[in-house]
Amino acid sequence: MIVTDAKLRLGCADFAPDFTLYEYQRSGQPLGVGAVRFAWKRATKRAGLDGMLVHDIRRTVARNLRRVGVSEGVIMKLCGWDTRSTFDRYNIIDEQDLAQAVAKLNGTVVAQSEGVAA
């Protein structure tokens, strides 16, 4: 498996099934699951994001990439999602997305009613 710098920056690294937390080490000793969970919990609390999950980052990345116009296929490839159903699980549609869709439609309707090509 190849994890590109872009994937790591995006929070979408696709980890192979044999990936374990023990691949991370401190002073040559493997970190256990408890140490990683504790570090994550402490880091999110310090950042004012208490209760945030790693998967929240993946959802946010997928949403933000879609909002800036990155194709769904590219998002799926970056995040390591092989199926459309996995993409759909992470693809957040929120009130902002709905409002933008209505605004686009309204802009098209207004342009058509004024005789301007949309």
Give a short synopsis of this structure.
This protein is 58% helix and 3% strand.
Question: What does this 3D model show about the protein?
Answer:
- This protein is mainly alpha-helical and about 120 residues long.
- Helices cover about 60% and strands about 5% of the residues.
- It contains 6 helices and 2 strands.
- The chain has helices at about 5-10, 35-45, 55-65, 70-80, 85-90, 95-115, and strands at about 25, 30.
- The protein has a two-stranded antiparallel sheet.
- A hairpin with a 2-residue loop joins strand 1 and strand 2.
- The longest helix is centred in the last third of the chain and has 19 residues, at about 95-115.
- The protein is elongated and about 70 Å long.
- Residues about 1-5 and about 15-20 have low confidence and may be disordered.
Strand order of the largest sheet: 1-2
Structural domains: how many:
1
| Element-by-element helix/strand order | HEEHHHHH
Helix content: 55-70%
Mean pLDDT: 77
Instruction: Please outline the major beta sheet.
Output: 2 strands, antiparallel
Q: Measured on Cα atoms, how large is the radius of gyration? A: 20 Å
Instruction: Give unreliable regions as ranges.
Output: 1-5, 14-22
Structural class: mainly alpha
- Span between termini: 45 Å
Which oligomeric form is depicted?
A: single chain
Strand content: under 5%
How many β-strand stretches?
A: 2
**Can you tell me the overall shape?**
elongated
**Individual helix count:** 6
